[in-house]
Amino acid sequence: MPRPVALEVAVPSEDLSYPVAVGAGLLDHVGATMQRVCPKARRVALISDENVVPLYGERVRASLEGAGLAVTTHVIEPGEPSKTPERMVALVSSLVADGLGRSDAVVALGGGVVGDLAGLVAALFMRGVDVVQCPTSLLAQVDASVGGKVAVDLPEGKNLLGAFAFPRAVVIDPGVLATLPDEELGCGVAEMLKHGALFDPQHFDAVRDQAEAIYGRDVAVLGREVATSVALKAACVVRDPMERSDAGKGRVALNLGHTVGHALEVTQGYGLKHGQAVGLGLLAAARVSRRLGLTAVDLEGHIRTALDALRLPTDLDAYLVPERRSAIVEAMGRDKKRAQHQITYIGLARLGEPRVVSLSPQAIWDAAASPPSGA
Ligand SMILES: NC(=O)c1ccc[n+]([C@@H]2O[C@H](COP(=O)([O-])OP(=O)(O)OC[C@H]3O[C@@H](n4cnc5c(N)ncnc54)[C@H](O)[C@@H]3O)[C@@H](O)[C@H]2O)c1
């Protein structure tokens, strides 16, 4: 047999760094940001949803037009059902109809649904155009907008069709949280607690102690804590941009609270909001860590106090009842982080010290359910 020819294609890597700005009133400066980060853009497709456009669409449009950009606005129905391949393709077609070119850009104005969908549209349209994220929900500000994961859902599961595509910039205006319903604010708060629990106990305590200011929409407090939370997530993303590491402080750690949380969310028929379920998942992680000997600390009590102060549910035992066992174990088994029958589970040795362990769904149930099912 002739020897195969071995060639190597050297691909120079591009610097994918991007700025994240946090500050009250920044929505009025999106145009100036675009001039800086996408200087060749002449047209912008502003993608938003029906709740957010009447509140903030005009401010962003005015700022973009003030910077000399031609803006077309595309409005989707709010909520997860809009994150579909069909909606994504329809948006790509509208960008073609707008006459957007390769050097033009997308601006995503909305919660995580808009950010994920618009981000994927930008990643795929003409093999990729620039996107600037302007997240308007707390969850999107502290989590979804930073990290470059973009996706839509398939009937088989959430976020199954997606990519890593980093934005050109992220513009976070905590002033917009004034109109976000409390329940949605709570979802973002749970992710902030998660960042604190994983990487910075002081942030965990600061969020807990400022519950009243957070729910009172104090922009100074929100701006500070959002910026801290984003910095913690960003540092994690920088350590492991493409989620390839299974080390304790790589992106896999961001799954803390999500294995049990997601299983509760789906088996509850989505009666629990995502952030509420993540809060319960954090409690479960504390309990599992204690029962498996990863920690000797009463993290469960500490986390329960914080969830309580932050108006998030704490009644984990009401959800982990024997009659729900098989549904919850099965839902954990469908966890996308699983490898064969083992799940990559994130525990805690203490706040700020995540531990990655490999566990079966049944072992997680056994350690999380109270009293322990083996007792
Ligand atoms: N890409 C990532 O890394 C990542 C991380 C976490 C979550 N996500 C995704 O994010 C999505 C959830 O995001 P979400 O919780 O922001 O949901 P969402 O986008 O549905 O927003 C929640 C609700 O709040 C409304 N809203 C948003 N901002 C508002 C404002 N300022 N005032 C009034 N109403 C406002 C929206 O219209 C919507 O009704 C999920 O699809 C999830 O998969 C992605």
Q: Which sequence of SSEs, written as H and E, runs from N to C?
A: EHEHEHEHEHEEEHHHHHHHHHEEEH
By secondary-structure content and strand pairing, the structural class works out as alpha/beta
Tell me the β content: 15-25%
Radius of gyration: 21 Å
Bound compounds, please? nicotinamide-adenine-dinucleotide
User: Helicity, in percent?
Assistant: 40-55%
How are strands sequenced across the largest beta sheet? 1-8-5-4-2-3
Fourth CATH level, the homologous superfamily of the largest domain:
Dehydroquinate synthase-like - alpha domain
Per CATH, the architecture of the largest domain is Up-down Bundle
Number of strands: 11
Number of domains: 2
Sheet with most strands: 6 strands, parallel
Tally the helices: what do you get? 15
The span between the termini is: 64 Å
Mean pLDDT over the residues: 94
Low-confidence stretches: none
Tell me briefly what this model is.
The protein has helices at 30-37, 52-66, 85-98, 112-124, 138-144, 182-199, 201-209, 211-215, 219-239, 258-267, 274-291, 299-309, 316-319, 325-333, 361-368; strands at residues 20-22, 43-49, 70-76, 105-110, 130-135, 149-154, 157-164, 169-172, 338-339, 342-350, 353-359. It has 375 residues and is an alpha/beta fold. It has a 6-stranded parallel beta sheet, with helices on both faces.
